[in-house]
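so im writing up the methods section and need the AAA+ ATPase domain-containing protein record in one place, dumping it here so i stop losing it
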Amino acid sequence: MPQYSSLQPQARLNHQNQPCLWKLSKALAVSTYPPCRLLIATPNQQDAKSNKEKLLKNILGDKHSIEAVINFSSAAQGKKGIEYSLIVVDIHPKENKTTVYIDVSTSNKAIANLSPENRAILGASIYRLYRGQHPAKIFVPEEVESFLRAQFSRGYRDVKNICVAVLNNPGKLVQAHSVKQFIRRHQDSADTVSSVADLSEILQILHHGKPPSCIFVIGNNGAGKSLLLRDLITRLGEQNITTVGISTTIHDRFPSSDATLRHRNFIYKGARTSSRSIMLSNLHEDASQQTANIFKDQHKLDALVECFESLGYAPRFYLIKKAATVAEDTAADEQFIKLDLIVKNNKFPPNISEYEFGLVRAGSKEQVRPYSALSSGEQNITHLLLRIITNEQAGRVFLVDEPEVSLHLQWQQSLPRVFGILSRRFHISFVVATHSPTVITNASDPLMHCFQLNKGELRPLNEEERFSVESIILEGFDTYTPNNRGVHEKCAKLVAQTISNRNTPNGPDSKSALKELKILQNLVKTTGGNSSGASGDLELIRKAHTAISLLLQDDEIEIA
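--- predicted struct ---
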């Protein structure tokens, strides 16, 4: 008897939904499940409900049980179409204690970016994870694999609006409920859908009661770093942790006036003054007011001085009267007000908006540079420091989006040290999204954690990896440089993983290592040119392929 069969009790499935059902069934069947499972595909229309219940009662009886109900659609994305339920019946005596309900229909907005066929594959993959097995990689497209990594990197879990597994009542017939409604009623303890990656490790680091920390997430453009920060607003808000969003560009993905997020303790302190614009005059005025606030608080002022000194500025600060407000009879001491590093010695003019913040570079004697005359990088770093220090409060988490924009290499190297100073002084934490390997390689403080975001996977970087710029560039940015130590590390890692997988029952598909070697080989061939370093790396890749092929023995995947 085949492991799976298909029954269509209500209507013959037409050509529109055959691709979805075929992919769903195929992805379910690629495995050695204990026989036997029966698949029943039935439309979800109201008039089919009673017939479906009668059919299930006749099939199930007292010996069989519903293992899964998967809601999927027949129509193309964006069209109404017909929704179906694929019911997976366990023909064995009732052994499983739970039934999993999965909604991958086109009306499910939580997976809006997936096609109907890919939604079907997603549904089958979730079912396999629920059964403790890995998705069938041969059928899983990259966008589905990214979603699976983001939600289920540690195995199956209930996810809001996507899937829930519920205990069965031993004395009651398990029914194929309306999947959408059933999930809504039973998802109180389910996890929130993550847009880009599984955030559990970051959330654990930031949990209430844990010491302050600095978390750096590196990834290529488009990897989802900004969306990750936005997800953290919601997830940390659920724990009543206040988050502060900071960016120096208008292109951040933070909400500024999103009413649905206001109650989740989010404060926007980025560069935008409206939905997608920056008013420079407002930024300059804000800098003046923030400076005045800091110079009235000794604790804040000491932190500002230490940060600026680490960036190469002398600890000398001024308020400079704006040119447009200077009259002919304005005294010199009114045009330049030197600020004292002892708070009680400072006196501020009542019309602070007529002044702007000025500072002195180390080694430049008393050459005062007003905020408006600073370079874009200097303005960005000043804006960053002023916003953080004026909004500090113990326990807050600052979400910083690409702070390295417009900063020269030396300041990029100093950024982790600056965040460490602020974290320790104010007992605050940071999650910093960056595409700068320089930032990662300088995050050496014990309170710092580094992650790499790539294709839905948020992978912690160990100490050796974070100090290797070459490995970060190769793994995170798909970029090869000749004589790259990352190639050696990648080959060794794949061989070791293959050995481990072959010794693990129901482990991941070991053939994927050969595919990764093929991708790496193409990358080196494409970007390495004719250098001797590239030739040596290609030879190393060939040797790794030979070693893995011997381990797999019958594998016929070829690498040219």
